[in-house]
Write the structure tokens for this entry.
Amino acid sequence: MQSDPSRVPSVACLLYLAADRLAPRGMSANMLKATKIPCRPVWVRPIQLSATIAAATFLSLRDASSLKLHLQDVTSKDPTYKMPPGRLRTHTTLTVTEADTIPPEGLAGELLAIARDAPNGLLGDFQANGRLVAAGVPQGVFAYPFVRNLIRTELLDAGYYRRSQRFRVQPDCERIATLEQARTATVRWWEHRQATEARLCAALVAVCRRASTPITGGG
């Protein structure tokens, strides 16, 4: 695919280029892997980066009216309490509705398709303390390096990565430097969302962290 020099990368790409502001530096203890920030000698923990980028992408889809997210408190009978009359429990559900049938390209399109497949639109069910107890998105469904690879493909298509003579994909640091303003603005957008919609952001990150974690890995 021919690159488009006028194309501004997606929210996911811009956050990936600012990975050190989203995830702790270092290697995942269980996976023994790390994600390197393009054009900088900095490595960050991949699962936390993947979860944050995926959560922010879901919010960007919401903001673009590609889907609707609903975080609501629900009171129901406690299924673990068998004796009558039964006790009630309050929990929180995160659901998605009215997702676009024609998904966009890249990571956003993949996440939109995954959300549409969630049973009854349920992305996550949380205890009152915010702990994720059930999810409609399977563990590992976009485990590392799924998110990273889709982002690199988009950056390659937009001309911010290039192929070397040995067909290795390498960042074009000169072009990436032109995205500094857009990258900073996107990080600030995510930080603002975390401040103004803290519960929703935390719920999305929890669901996406589970989906980003290999069944045999963590961190």
User: Anything to note?
Assistant: The radius of gyration is 19 Å. DSSP finds seven helices and eight strands in the chain. The longest helix spans residues 46-63.
